[in-house]
Amino acid sequence: LVSTNISNIAVNSDAIATNASDIGVNSDTLDVHFGLVSTNISDIAVNSDAIAVNASDIGVNSDTLDVHFGLVSTNISDIAVNSDAIAVNASDIGVNSDTLDVHFGLVSTNISDIAVNSDAIATNAAGISANSDTLDVHFGLVSGNISDIADIQTNGIVGIIEKKSDGIHIGEDSLVTNLNEDTGAQDIWALNDGSLTDINFLSDVNVVSKLTVQAEAADSKTVITPATEIKPPYLNEDGIVADTVAVYTETGSVAVTTTNFDNSGVVATANGDLSLFASGGTQDVTSYVTAVRADIWDETQGDNAGFLAGPEVEVGGYIDMDGNFIELGVLDGDGVLDLDGLSSEELAMITVAGDPLPGGGGNLVVEGNARVDGALTLGSIADVEQSILDEVAARAAADDVLAAAINAEEVARATADDALQGGIDEVASNLADEAAARAAADADIVAGYMAADAAIVSGYMAADSSIVAGYMAADQMLAARISSVEDKVESNTRGIAMVAAMTSPTVREGMENALDFSLAHFDGETGAAISYARRVNENVQLNIAAASDTDFEETVVRGGVSLQW
Fold it and tell me: What is the mean pLDDT, run by run of 10 residues, along the chain of 565 residues?
């Protein structure tokens, strides 16, 4: 009986090896089939969406059929090209099928190598787990240090020195310093509870270059004005996004008024010059147009041509001398353009310098003695009076010349008005004739387009019906094949789990029997196995194993003989 069992065990071992190889082959085949099924399902969904979009576009695009006819011709050419590519792909698929046998053999070899490597992986996993615990502790310490260093580099030390949006703050009630990028000077000011306050110098102050004392620039005022009328959109054929045409729809305008006092106050330089200026300032107005940009795929994009390439974007810019919209940047959440991010050339295109603002001051008051070692220059009162008399005489002469010019212009305007009215009457008559001719021509064009639309829609509907019927039949056949494949995959998966659970126990020296209980899990299926080995003599060991799934519906049995010398 033992001899018979040994023979049967050997036969079963060969069958099990064959089954394992077949399972590997089937798994690879199933992977390929599942990939093809997934691709077909995706293509069906894409085609269904395209069919719905085409049906909608046919009804909407009647006014632009002259353009679409050209695109239809292009699509027909592309379809012919794609048909050739499909034929090439079909040939390549046949070639690839021939190489599957070679790959199946490699998969069988890999299964054997994986079993050998499993023990080494288990040892490495234990070492990795031990190292991971140590690394977790180290990473926690390093992460805390990195966070503290980054916080100090970014924000400084709270209450001592901090970096904020307006500059470097020193102390609680801060002394703030910040580089003025416009003047290149280092600005210094003091805050008390968040408000500006005076700075008292309790000892000497040494100014190496120049000391300027002037009024603080007022906060800029931003006024957003919505558009009051609908204007034709602006087109940019090059587009901001590659392969698109940018379409800008004007939505309004923004005006930013900035007041500064750069030319006022007291200026003391290191060479001893002292200048007193009145407190007048200047107001500059920066104004730009706001618009919504839509990026439309151009004709290079085939079927996507004419569709949105992405979400619409709110932007700011200006209209150049040729009537084109020039984009400067994207608006923020408040609908305002970031002027600080523009170059000086871009700012110059949208900024108008205002007139100087009147201001008082500029006087020098000396309560004690005043000493002037150099020349002291005073304005001459007599010169001022003579200048006033000369101005009065010049203005009277200019008034006489202006009155004569006004009279001459009135006569010229009356003559031009008569000629203009005659031209207007003639143009009105010509426009009426042209309107009648255009109406008749438009009626003929509309009738032609409507007939063409009807023919195209009928053709598309017939083609769509045929395509849908073909896809439905293919779907039914595919669903049946998927169901059959899923049943086989489930059975193969259980078999792999059961075979993986089976072990080959070895009877240690000095022992006669060995018994193993083991479990294995593969792709959602669990296998349980019991393996037994007995030492017949010092050179021969017998081993048998049995495995089943968790439902005990399927069973695998194996036996073997181990010869040792």
Answer: 80 80 77 74 76 72 66 76 77 72 69 76 76 71 69 61 66 70 72 75 71 64 78 80 90 87 69 68 87 92 89 94 92 91 92 72 73 66 66 84 85 83 82 85 84 81 81 84 80 88 87 92 91 91 92 88 87
Rounded distance, CA 498 to CA 472, Å?
A: 39
Distance separating alpha carbons of residues 121 and 127, to the nearest angstrom: 10
User: CA 433, 434, 435: angle at the middle one, nearest 5?
Assistant: 90
Model pLDDT for residues 418-458, shown as the tens digit of each residue: 888 887 888 788 888 888 888 888 888 888 878 887 888 78
As a whole number of angstroms, the distance between CA 91 and CA 87 comes to 6
Whole-number Å distance between alpha carbons of 245 and 384:
64
Residue 248 to residue 324: CA distance in whole angstroms: 10
The kind and range of the H/E element at 101 are helix 65-155
Place of tokens 């020193």: 170
> Residue 233 has what DSSP assignment?
P
Are 180 and 187 contacting, i.e. CB atoms less than 8 angstroms apart? Answer: yes
Task: Yes or no: say if 307 and 337 are a contact pair by the CB < 8 Å rule.
Answer: no
Q: How many CB atoms lie within 10 A of CB 498?
A: 24
CA 173 – CA 191 distance, rounded (Å): 6
Provide φ and ψ at 147, rounded to 5°: -65, -45
Helix (H, G, I), strand (E, B) or coil at 319: strand
For the beta carbon of residue 461, count every other beta carbon within 10 angstroms. Answer: 12
* Stated pTM of the model: 0.32
Nearest to 267 by CA among 215, 216, 214: 214
Contacts 24+ apart (CB under 8 A), 262-266: 262/183, 262/214, 263/356, 264/214, 264/215, 264/359, 264/361, 265/212, 265/213, 265/214, 265/215, 266/211, 266/212, 266/213, 266/214
> Can you tell me whether residue 103 is helix, strand or coil?
helix
Looking at residue 60, what is its pLDDT? Answer: 74
CB count within 10 Å of CB 320 equals: 10
Q: Residue 385: which region, alpha, beta or left (left: phi > 0; alpha: psi -120 to 50)?
A: alpha
- Which tens digit of pLDDT belongs to each residue from 117-152? 777 777 777 777 777 677 677 667 767 767 766 666
pLDDT at 115: 77
Q: Is 502 exposed, middle or buried (0-12, 13-18, 19+ CB in 10 A)?
A: buried
Concatenated DSSP letters for 521-544? Answer: EETTEEEEEEEEEEEEETTEEEEE
Please list, in sequence order, all residues whose beta carbon lies within 8 angstroms of the beta carbon of residue 328, skipping any fewer than 6 positions away: 288, 315, 316, 317, 318, 337, 342, 346, 350
Q: Is 504 helix (H, G, I), strand (E, B) or coil?
A: coil
